[in-house]
Amino acid sequence: MESIIHIESIRDALVNMLSDNTAEARLTTYQKITKEHIPHLSNGSVVLDIIWCLDAELAEGSVAVKDLEATRKNLASFVSLVKAKGLFSVELIKKRLDFRCLELAGVIDSEKAFFQKSIRINTQVVYRQQKYNLLHEESEGYSKVLALLASLTSPRVSVILDYLRSFIGYFALDPARVLDIILDLFIHSPHRYEFFLNLIRESDWNPISVDEDRDLEMTGIGEDGNSDIADLLGHKFKQYRNEDFDETAPKELYLVSAILIREGIIKLEHLYGHLVTKEHEQEIKLACALLDTCDIDHAKLVIYNLETLDDAITDRLCSIVHLAINDLYNRECRIGQEASKEQDIVKGTTFYLTYKPWRSGLPKWTVLTDILSQSTQEYIRLIGSGFSRDLLLFTKLLRLAKRHLIVLQKDNSPDKQVKVSTWIDTVRTALLPSITVGELNPGTADDVWEVLLSFPYEIRYKLYKEWRDSVYDPDKKVYKKRLETRKTIRQVMKRITSQNAKEKGREIGKTSHGDPVTVLAVVIEQIQWYQNMIPALVEASKYLTSLSYDVMTFLILEAFTNNKKQKMKETGENYEDWFKNLAEFCGDMARRYSNLDIRSILDYVAVRLSNPTEPDLPVLSELISGMSGVKNDKDLLDDDLPYLGAHETLRKERIHLKIKDKSIRRSSARLVTALVDSGLAISIAISLAQLKKAIIYGEKHTDLKLLNNNIDECQETLTQYLEFLGLNIDSKSYSSIVPTVKELCLDHGIDPEEALAIVRRKLSHIVEKGGPSTPKQTDDEEAPVSVWQQELTETISDVEQILPSHVWRGISAGFYTTFWQLSLYEISYRKSIYSTFVQKATETAKNFKSDIVIGMREEHERHVSRIKARLNQEKRQWFTENRSDVIATFWQYCMFPRILFSAEDAIFCARFLELIQEIGADNFTARLFYSEVLSHERLPEVIPNLTEEESKHYGRFLACILEYLTYISKDERRYRDKLLGIGQADFKPAWLQNVGGPATTFDQFVRILENHRKRLMISFKKCLKSSESTKIRNAIQILRAISDQFPASRDHSQRLLELIQVIESDSRPDIKTLASSYKAILIRGQKNLSNDSRATQSSKPIEASSVSRVSASNTPIERVASPRRQIHPLPDKPKNDKPRSNRDKEKVDPIYDRDKDKDPRKEHHDSHKKPPNDHLPRDKEFEKDRSDRPKIERKDRENGKNVKNVVTTVVRREETREEMKDEKRDETKGEKPIVMIDRESERERHRDNGRRRHMDDSRRVVSVAPSRPNLRRPVSSGGSTNNGTIKRDRDDDDGIDPNPKKIKPMPAPPLRTSLRVHGRTLRKG
Using CA atoms, how far apart are residues 4 and 340, in angstroms rounded to an integer? Predict the structure, then answer.
């Protein structure tokens, strides 16, 4: 294309010159042509052809000019200038131009005379019979010629030429036949090349020393070589192409032709026309001969005209390159081994041993940069995949590349990137294709990997893609080889199993050494279809090379980003099987093999987390679980839960013991190192928190279940990731990379709950590092003493700015920071966890040392003691005196969001609640808090706003507090020690906290607990009867979580069973499956329940104080940055999974020390049966029971009366008054919860007060359960009768006596009819 452009430019210049008939114009045109165009043309004589075409066009009139004759003379003048400048010889000018132009230019004297001479010469050469023929020729002359030339002791060339001339003249020999004989002898003895070349050079057949006066009639040669010799050789080639001729052309014929071409005696273009065939066989052999003579330039001209590169040509090119780099390799890379000999390098010929000029044509590379030169790269591109035929050369080139790339890493020159790019092109065009075609060994594959390792993985993956797509495969060798490889690997994949994984793994490894992109692509394809093949293929992959592992990483990531496949199922609730299988395989491979590059996988995860629509969370989750063994909450089993609060080292050791894979320790450390070195350790955690927020506040979701699933999955992954970081990064390193709470919330825009979860370990580290803190005394006695840890001062100040100011009306910023800073490990110590672990570890590991575990246990015990001592210092400044705000803010900003965060946090909240009661925090009312949590009005509002995993966490929390309360209710001494001990928070109504009234008695506590169970029954009944799938699903999940504690009576169990049986007929398959699973749990648990549910209902239920006081306070309760939270917050959290029963699983460690042989629920029922002293008179029995109650002794000094009974009476009157208020409130709302008051208890109440009240059996005694107004929707009125009683049928009383006595309700104070929440006013009605 470039030559055509220059030819057109020359013609345009000549045309422009014709219009200006001046010598200056002709000279300018000549200079332009010679300087700008001729150097770019392979044959400069094309200028004469252009002049001839232009002259012919002028003669024919094709070019419009004013004066034709003057124009032709002007062109002839330019030819005269060319002749005078000596640009072309006179002979060449005479051959190319027309006679008229030659005459005008002065090259010939007369057009007519020259024309006649040319006719005469033509006639003599073509038509006239030669004067000598076979009849005149004498064979003796040819014999003498043969004898003369074949003599090994021939005299000088000049003497031989004299003899030849005399033989030709004397015997009338044909000179052409003599030349043919000379060529035949040359072909027969090519090693005598020097003699024959000198003979031709000094003879009249030499094209270089042509005499200008020599008669062209006899020679037929010129500056372009002797065409007669070329024709003679071509005739010989043509002879061997004849079908009747059985023999093939000898290689000596090609070798002689190559020597003559190399020496310039003949031209390649003269001979090439005689060689062109369909099979290109003669062209290939001629190219080989040219390479044997090291005539590389002419060989390239032949090679470029071939469709494919023959192996013979490749071998010779490899030999040339090998010799070129041999000295360089010996200097740069050879260590100890013997240098390669020349005869071991050159392949395909031995002619170089006798042909001395051969070495003069070899390229020579002396420094590493010579390999990157244009001429060297041309050799490499020509060879391409042919390097596979010379393994020694291929290895040397790889090591030189590795050496140079190492040098370039320290190079700061401007052309560094150009050099690196050249090496990348070399890898792309030659090295990688050579791997596919050749039969390589693992050592060579490792050499290739060391070269590729010098490039970043982005460039490597781009090279792999081009390699897989066979971009550089001109001769289709790679394509043909891959067809065979693909067929072989598919046969192996059909037969691989877990039993023969080792054997088949060797076959996979051997096949993948040469073409990993093809082999592993089939492996990845199989994994996506068959999940059960993952273990076998992971085991079989141990025979792969480092290059294969890197290629596998590329193929896995490419499969993840395949846009042609849908990752989510059509329902949007779960991922497709191929995606889950691939993620699992990725995690297992990353754990097992350290050669797998996880940095690229982490970068992929970090990028995908910024896309809320397709974050690909299973990739990160499986990578963590595969490499560290840390599972997410949905995969936790019941025996895993007790270990959530154990020592970090014990938790890690249990994971290692459970997985039974020695590589898990190294792989978890490798994952941590990759995260920290890449700076992604905290970035991924922040991205997960931001992703959760983006899911909630992003695009509008029409499918609530899909939204909940996405929230669950994001929350589970975040929890799993933080758990992994906590177990594998030491506290000091973790603290150095984690930003502050303020930065996380304000700079990164995540919620305080997630921010504090990320920072928790950092805060614990700085607190522990600072040591125990003592309260700071101030001069002002009235000023509060600062009891907070000095290291937390900055964090306390930050949370004060982040959260709204009204939060601090109920709790302090220091308490908020303490609550979120503590973990389950710091407040809960279970000795049996360590004992159980030692027992199991001893059974599994023979050399297990229990001393280490004992040290962990002692350290854990000391740490919990220090934390409790610290909390005892802080407890007086936790809560304000406004108890209603205390419960609201503590629940909304501390307990509720952390309950829903994870399973560990749910258990933490339950333990922290126990700890508050144990240490006796000021201004905290446990009874009020439990009533709020277990409210039969609040719980049905909370349940439908939870996700499925959040409901499981909420259920775990409820199970813990129910287990704790049940444990306390079994023994009055426990109740006194844990709830009524010195300094502990009294379990009493809120309205008695400030007046020093009596605490709740044990009997009252038992009745309150039973009342809570009834509330739970009412709540779950409302949810299970609902038509909303979310409410039903979440209710069943919570019931499954608390199945060990609820239902506690056969009556409640039977009622739940009836409701579940109705749900089993639901058309929604997920709900139907959950219902069937819970039904089995109910049926299995009924045998442990009491037959008579009234045994637990005989005691009078004492209601907690109305929680509506919280909502009736003047404090505006708001929840910022979350539309799902109000007074009862409904936060954002994790994902669903298959239903799992935890009722019948054996627990590793009981939370409380109790007799395991007794069923807790049956024991609970038995404990409330009639006591052994039931034979005593009623009054004496009452006095005995009363003696066990806390006594409030107060003497009235004025009248000397004991007022203990008076105080008791006042307390009970107040309780009754509250119950009547609640009844009135529920009448207004139309609600019908009923709590019975036992008649015997009523008589006791009158007896203590010194007076009796006659009770009418025809009247019904009711008490309404306390509840706060519904904050989510306006409260509807209705449902009350004229006489103030509430009508209720048997089906709605949920195990309550259907025939109670009636008491006229006392008037209740007016309720607030509106409430301000999130800027909206909610009004009744």
Answer: 47
| Measured distance CA(311)–CA(288) in Å, rounded | 10
Q: How many CB atoms lie within 10 A of CB 984?
A: 19
User: What is the SS3 assignment for 225?
Assistant: strand
Residue 1174 contacts by C-beta under 8 Å, 6 or more apart in sequence? 1181
Write out the two tokens for 1005: 């506590």
| 3-state SS record for 624-642 | HHHHHCCCCHHHCCHHHHH
Write out pLDDT tens, residues 565-612: 888 887 777 888 899 999 999 999 999 998 888 999 999 999 999 888
For the chain, counts of helices (H) and of strands (E): 61, 4
| CB contact burial 501-521 (16+ within 10 A = b; e otherwise) | beebbebbbbbbbbbbbbbbb
Residues paired with residue 222 on neighbouring β-strands, in sequence order: 225
Phi, psi (deg, nearest 5) at residue 462: -65, -40
CB atoms within 10 A of CB 327: 13
| Cβ(1075)–Cβ(1066) below 8 Å | yes
Contact 1047, 1089 (CB under 8 A): yes
Give the number of residues written for the chain. 1325
* CB atoms inside a 10 Å sphere around CB 1243: 16
**DSSP letter assigned to residue 134:** T
Encode pLDDT of 260-306 as tens digits: 999 889 999 889 888 877 778 889 999 999 998 888 999 999 998 88
Separation of alpha carbons 44 and 27, rounded Å: 18
The answer to whether 200 and 161 are in contact (CB under 8 A) is: no
Cis? peptide before 414, omega within 30° of 0: no
CB 524 within 8 A of CB 556: yes
987 phi, psi to nearest 5 deg: -85, 75
- Summarize pLDDT for 528-545 with one digit per residue, the tens: 988 888 988 998 888 899
- Work out whether the CA dihedral 245, 246, 252, 258 comes out positive or negative: positive
Distance CA 683, CA 689 (A): 10
**What span, in angstroms and rounded, lies between the C-alpha atoms of 390 and 406?**
25
| Residue 1150, both tokens | 């009981």
The DSSP secondary structure of 300-356, one letter per residue, reads HHHHTT-SS--HHHHHHHHHHHHHHHHHHHHHHT--SSPPPPHHHH--S--GGGT-G
The answer to whether the CB of 442 falls within 8 A of the CB of 545 is yes
Asked if the model's pLDDT at residue 786 lies above 80, the reply is: no
Smallest CA-to-CA distance from 1207 within 998, 1052, 1003 is with 998
- Identity of the residue numbered 1309: P
Closest CA to 997 of 908, 927, 1052, 1100: 927
Cβ burial 615-649 (10 Å sphere, 16+ → b, else e): bbbbbbbbbbbbbbbbbbbbebebbbbbbbbbbbe
CB 317 within 8 A of CB 361: no
Residue 677 CB neighbours (<10 A): 10
Long-range CB contacts (within 8 A, 24+) of 175-184: 175/218, 176/228, 176/232, 177/142, 178/142, 178/145, 179/205, 179/228, 179/229, 179/232, 180/232, 181/142, 181/145, 181/146, 181/149, 182/149, 183/229, 183/232, 183/233, 183/236, 183/256
The whole model's pTM is what? Answer: 0.70
Residue that the structure tokens 């093939």 belong to? 248
Q: Give the residue from 273, 288, 280, 285 showing the smallest Cα distance to 306.
A: 280
1305, 1220 Cβ separation under 8 angstroms = yes
Beta bridge partners, 1316, equal 1321
Please report which helix (H) or strand (E) contains residue 149, including its range. helix 139-150
